[in-house]
Amino acid sequence: MKSNHTPSICHVCKENCGILIQDHGGDIHITGNPRHPISRGFVCLRGKNYGEIYASPHRLRQPLLKKRSSWTEISYEDALSILAYRLDRCRQNHGPQSVVFYKGESLKHQEISQYMSHLAHGFGTPNYITVGSLCHFAMTLGFRLTCGGMPAPDYARIKTAIIWGANPAVALARSAGALKKSLKAGTKLIVIDPSTTNTAKLADYHLSITPGSDGFLALAFIKFAIENRHIASSQALSNGWDDLKKLVSGIPLTDLLKPTGIEENRFWEAASLIFDNLPGWIQTGSGLELQPNGVQTVRAIASLLTILDPEAVTAPMASLLAPLPGMDRYPVMADPIGKIERPLFTANLGQGQGMYLPRAILDDVPYPVRAMLVVGGNPLLTFPNTQTYRRAFEKLDFMAVFDLFMTPTAQMADLVFPAASFLENLELIDYGRMGQPHLGLIRPVASSGMGWPTWKFLFRLAGALGLGNLLPWEDNRDALMHRLSVSGITLDDLLNSPSATVEYQPEKTRKGAWNTPDGKVHYYSRSVEATGNPALPTPDSFRLPYGPDDEFPFWLSTGDRVPCYQHSQFRQSPTCKATMPEPLLDIHTDAASRLGIGDGDRVRLSTRDGSIELCVRLTPEVRPDCLRMTHGWVEANVNEITGLQHLDPLSGFPWMRALPARVDRKTDR
Ligand SMILES: Nc1nc2c(c(=O)[nH]1)N[C@H]1C(S)=C(S)[C@@H](COP(=O)(O)OP(=O)(O)OC[C@H]3O[C@@H](n4cnc5c(=O)[nH]c(N)nc54)[C@H](O)[C@@H]3O)O[C@H]1N2
Ligand SMILES: Nc1nc2c(c(=O)[nH]1)N[C@H]1C(S)=C(S)[C@@H](COP(=O)(O)OP(=O)(O)OC[C@H]3O[C@@H](n4cnc5c(=O)[nH]c(N)nc54)[C@H](O)[C@@H]3O)O[C@H]1N2
Ligand code: SF4
Ligand SMILES: [Mo]
Predict the structure, then answer these.
(1) How many Å apart are CA 75 and CA 123, to the nearest integer?
(2) pLDDT in tens, 353-364
(3) Which of 76, 147, 166, 464 has the lowest tally of Cβ within 10 angstroms?
(4) 632 lines ligand 1 (CB under 6 A)
């Protein structure tokens, strides 16, 4: 049987490209949808091969209950009752805050995720925790505290793009297309990254910075702007411009450049290129926020942004959706975990900080956590210091995982509940978050009969917990019709659209006013000061807990993205797996030859937190003093060697980039 090309939206990453789907009797073909207003036909390797995930023989087919360390198949209804009973029992025995609702990256950017925080808060736990504990939110926080938010690129206006600690050519492949188009039209590109990434290869100027020193470089650019171009930020529109000015004028340029390893003449060339081509825009990435000084580094960069483009728009588009019922009637809740240590994080995100989970589970600090529901995430591989999380998950009274596969996290659970793939889901996608006023619809286009869609799982769980009034719908269609009622867009508009999207009228944004509470830029942040941290992004606030030494002489970057995988996902796709069948440690040819290491040799990679073994790949792309590997591997899980000790003082984000490490040759292959 052959079906038509049905338009839908790819759910694998936050690009949410428009796709066309053909179902040849269960054999799914996915192509890009040329009519999609943003992706215009683009589809990447993972999106194209998602049919292999959908049809994978390894998918979970039936709920599984662990009994004396072996699995028993049970019915969906029994699984739901057991789940609700165990969460409720934990609430009765230890209080609602002892139950954690955790949501991973695979469901992070979607409107449907609101259902889960709603359910958690309606249940009475403040511990709705997401992958936002180590993804994106440290950047958001740095920009929000400084200038109200991160601007989307306005290519019609900007003349320079600075890509800093990010690699969109791989990690945001669709957006990189828009960037490339604007480069052709004359936009200048500066890339600040230790590695010669695919994005760096597109740059007019690549600054191969020493890892962990980005804040110093940002201050150097600010100093250049003030002293050589006489650029000023309006005192009336800012808090602390004079303080920032005083800070940078008190430090010689050579002192700011020294930690960066960037020679003065190269700095001058790059700075001239930028300041000759204003306005400029800056995109930051994981390379910054996964440093143990991430937020202050981002604050320095956000301060620079306000100078490069005083007209940048940092306000997000307003939500088009009706609120969920009962949002104003949550029970009184305890403080989420992490609030005492990282109050700006928990208050701004409205979530607990997952890096403090092991302490709550293992040491009952600030109170015991005893049960956890994990939805769409694989924290055992993707959180730092796996051994600590393994001990913590083992100690839980109850853990349930809702996923497509028996992941390493699911293996630790008491109950595993199969999830449907996104080809079987129904949900809204709002592109407003990327500055594009379009609403899109993911619709069920296939039926494997395996697992429940997210909405069904959450709606039924709400019912089983006696909280059906929070998500009072039989079907997500009814919920969407209710939520869309305030938008002027109907579900039929979306279902009938050949691009699976509808354009909406965005709220007018005010130009030239920053989206902070008082409309001003906060170079000097009283909120930061109130936490006992420096109010300005000072050199002291960028210092790493420790740098490379004789024992750990390299800088290691962990988790650099590769096109074939989405974190720990896509190892079940034969096509994706074939492009990178095993974990590899990237090392520069010169460094390898100095250590007597050849291409493909097996090595031991160590940090102060432990060692793993894997093979090396020689490449000129990393600096001779750097190492690089991607995460998400069972075979060599790099998070066995990342730590939990040195968390960013403002966000609590873990240290996963700019990490001192060593490499030793093992035996020949
Ligand atoms: N294919 C694919 N795409 C993805 C994902 C995926 O798993 N696979 N994941 C998605 C998600 S959730 C995220 S958060 C994004 C992340 O998106 P990005 O942040 O754009 O991706 P990374 O590969 O982490 O790139 C970070 C860059 O930081 C650099 N870096 C490392 N240390 C430092 C440093 O000290 N200073 C500077 N300046 N740079 C440094 C690295 O060399 C790397 O090039 O990717 C998204 N896109
Ligand atoms: N060392 C190191 N560690 C890192 C990073 C790093 O750079 N370095 N990056 C961090 C970042 S930025 C991120 S975002 C995290 C990502 O960490 P995670 O959120 O753990 O991401 P994934 O490994 O992609 O796990 C997603 C899970 O969701 C499942 N899934 C997919 N689709 C669906 C669905 O529709 N429904 C349900 N119920 N499940 C689904 C997948 O099978 C998979 O098991 O990793 C972080 N960890
Ligand atoms: S970039 Fe790839 S994975 Fe991400 S939404 Fe587009 S097709 Fe899907
Ligand atoms: Mo992420």
Answers:
(1) 24
(2) 999 999 999 999
(3) 76
(4) no
